[in-house]
Amino acid sequence: MAVLLALHAGGQTKSWESIGLKFDGFSCYLADVALEIHEGTPGLTGWTIGAERPGVFNIDGIATTVVAETHPHVTSSPCGTEKITGLDHVVVMTDNLDRTCDALCQHLGVEVRRERDAGKGVVQRFIKLSNTIIEVVTGPHVTAPGASLWGMVISVDNMETWAAQCGPDVTSTPKQATQPGRLISTVRSGVGLGVPFAVMTPHVSAGD
Question: Model-level pTM?
Answer without folding.
Answer: 0.95
